[in-house]
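sorry for the late reply, my laptop died twice this morning and i had to redo everyting from scratch. anyway the thing you sent over, i finally got around to it. pasting the sequence first so we're on the same page, its 192 residues, then the predicted structure underneath. double check i copied it right bc i was rushing
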Amino acid sequence: MRKLNFILIALTLGFVLVACQNSEKKEDKSSTETQKAETKKVVVKEVNWERLDVDLMLKDYLKIKDELVKDNLKGTGKQAYEMIKHFEDYNYDRVPEAHVDFAKHIVRDAKEVAMKIESGSSLKEKRKHFYHLSEIMTKYVMTVEPDQPLYEQYCPMYADNRGASWLSLDKEIRNPFFGSQMLKCGEVTKKH
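ok and here's the structure:
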């Protein structure tokens, strides 16, 4: 009976050791995959902004989006700073006269959020504020009616599956809320 107990204990201990070694290998593998993902650069289609007929506020928004797609903390802050500077000289001539007051509120709100994006200390914080900027810019696009087609895109997984929308010049999904983590998560929901 003692031999049987000893054999059972030895077998159980052997299984536990093998299982632990396999889980360590899995952890090493996932750690290596994480390191690869962190060093992987996200490629964003370069846009010739000078040739594109999109107003400055929308251009700045789209540049912030592209920096978030690339997981670029400093670049996101820099583009938000550019957006803040451009608000000072915003030209309301593009806005239909009936919507100028509404556009002024949008510009004020967008400037406030851009300041939060610029001062954010992490990509997570900047993305949280970008969520609000995207809501504001969607209203802006409906007011201004840009000459260039824009695509409203949606990721259902952002913010604990509450989801988030953003605007893009391209139909191809490049998710600013997850960047390289889930670059292509989302779908086009509307064309403006």
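The chain has a mean pLDDT of 81.
thats about all i looked at so far, will dig more tmrw
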